[in-house]
Design brief:
13 strands, about 500 residues, binds zinc ion, alpha/beta, Rossmann fold, Arc Repressor Mutant, subunit A
């Protein structure tokens, strides 16, 4: 990899692979066994960054995604109905019924929202289904080669993993035509000329079937078989596959020694962890789905999150307040650490940044019930640029979704329609300060003016700043804390603010 630190990682990889050849196929793949979560985003987005960098450098490049629909259901996950799924364990995901009843298969059920999210995220990929690759015969050649060279593959497995490989081990897992399972079957023979495999199943069934219908290669052979059959030149994969003697190492030897091809350029990547909860995992349930993420932040921000860090750098994803900072970093609002090339690669629509921090918009949405006209009026009051209605509406929807789903309690606000009962506990000093504030407030004051006015009231020593802020927040929000006070009061209608301050000053008297 390039030593040039200023160069973006995707550009460095693109430059390096272009020295070998000009045409490239970047391949990705994830098993559709459950909800696709933000952790999975790294697989496809790492590839997307390199894809864009290659396109920018004039390469001929294709980008595919292989849905591992032939993988068996490993167990009855917590989110599955055991009554329905206990009997489906061991069957390929493409042959199992969908959990909701609206999809063609279990695999389709999880793939559909993932592929919709990919469209929203601006990722254009060719979707291939593993069961099609097999059943349409695209892997026939590799299956026969693997069966013919079973002893070579066993030796590679043994040398790389340093584990004993069973004498009857086969690179091929037959799919029983009678019971539909990949588990409990074993190869009993094959015929290279006839392209058939014979197998026996624990259910008692035995037959000789065409290789294209007879099952699938075991993972460590399936992967290099795809590289060879499709001509994959670049592939990102989770760091577990990159360990010494892991599936990339064995795959490299299998493609060279068995299929006589070359492995793709490897891009190992680090997992994406949910802050405080470890690596995201469907089985642990500690996940934010990609579909949820695309409702929470604009697609450019999700892309930026992955592009800004090198693939092997750890990313701790925190959907709370840090996610708001990420939006502002991408928008280049109040941020010093924006990565310009990552933002450039992330760009989709030529929409201008909103011009106000997303953190502020989250507050605005809460004090205006998310009404676009009210928010536009507030921006005007603050002399802030007013984006097009479409842009503003779009950002409001993200802010609302974040508030509903990920806002920590301290970020939640509820502007009270009537004077909160808690104002009765205000001290006489607090009430007096609110009264003075009401008298000195003027309609044309902006947030900075109001901020200066509030501070000036605390300078003659009659009231501490903290006590005055608490009184103001209590009067409007019914809680002792809130957003920056000048900005907050400046966001509200002048008459409303003055009246409420007067009411609060009179409360409990
Ligand atoms: Zn479904
Ligand atoms: Zn069977």
């Amino acid at each position: 990899m390039s030593e040039n630190r200023a160069q973006h990682w995707a550009d460095a990889i693109a430059q390096e692979v272009l020295q070998a050849q000009k045409q490239h196929l970047i391949s990705t793949g994830i098993t559709p066994s459950g909800d696709y979560h933000v952790g999975h985003l790294r697989e496809v987005m790492t590839a997307e960054g390199i894809y864009r960098a290659l396109v920018d450098q004039g390469a001929e490049v294709r980008f595919n995604y292989i849905a591992d629909t032939m993988d068996p259901l490993r167990r009855v996950y917590d989110f599955l109905d055991p009554e329905v799924y206990a009997d489906e364990v061991g069957k390929p995901l493409c042959d199992i019924p969908c959990p909701c009843g609206d999809h063609g298969s279990y695999a389709e059920h999880f793939l559909e929202p993932f592929l919709e999210s990919m469209q929203k995220l601006g990722v254009e990929l060719d979707v291939l289904y593993a069961h099609d690759l097999y059943r349409q015969g695209h892997l026939d050649t590799q299956i026969i080669m693997a069966l013919e060279q079973t002893e070579t593959i066993k030796r590679i497995e043994h040398e790389e993993s340093r584990k004993e490989v069973a004498a009857d081990w086969s690179p091929f897992n037959p799919l029983c035509a009678a019971c539909g399972r990949l588990s409990g079957t074993r190869v009993t023979g094959f015929d290279a000329a006839a392209k058939t495999v014979s197998y026996h199943c624990d259910c008692g069934h035995a037959e000789t079937a065409p290789v294209s219908r007879a099952g699938k290669l075991t993972w460590r052979v399936d992967w290099p078989a795809r590289w060879h059959a499709l001509g994959v030149t670049i592939e990102p994969f989770g760091k577990d596959h990159a360990s010494r003697g892991g599936s990339y190492d064995t795959g490299t030897r299998v493609i060279r020694e068995v299929f006589h091809g070359e492995p793709p350029y490897p891009i190992p990547y680090e997992w994406l962890a949910l802050r405080g909860q470890g690596d995201m995992s469907s089985s642990k349930g500690n996940l934010v789905s990609i579909a949820n993420l695309t409702q929470t932040v604009p697609p450019e921000v999700a892309r930026y999150m992955i592009f800004k860090a090198k693939p092997l750098r750890h990313i701790a994803f925190d959907p709370g307040l840090p996610l708001l900072n990420l939006v502002d970093e991408y928008d280049n609002v109040e941020s010093n650490n924006r990565n310009p090339r990552a933002a450039d690669l992330a760009l989709l629509k030529d929409w201008p940044p909103l011009g106000i921090p997303f953190k502020h918009l989250v507050n605005l949405v809460q004090i205006s019930d998310g009404e676009v006209d009210k928010i536009a009026a507030i921006l005007k009051r603050h002399d802030l640029p007013i984006p097009s209605r479409e842009v503003l509406q779009n950002r409001i929807a993200y802010a609302q979704y974040w508030v509903e789903n990920y806002a920590p309690p301290e970020a939640r606000l509820q502007l009270q329609d009537t004077l909160p009962a808690s104002t009765e506990s205000l001290t006489s000093e607090q009430r007096e300060a609110l009264s003075t504030l009401a008298n000195r407030l003027e309609p044309d004051m902006n947030g900075d003016d109001i901020h200066a006015l509030v501070y000036s009231l605390t300078q003659d020593g009659d009231i501490e700043p903290k006590a005055l802020f608490q009184a103001i927040y209590t009067a409007f929000l019914g809680q002792p804390r809130g957003p920056r006070v000048g900005w907050f009061l400046g966001s509200l209608e002048f008459d409303f603010v003055r009246t409420r301050l007067q009411e609060a000053a009179a409360a409990g008297v």
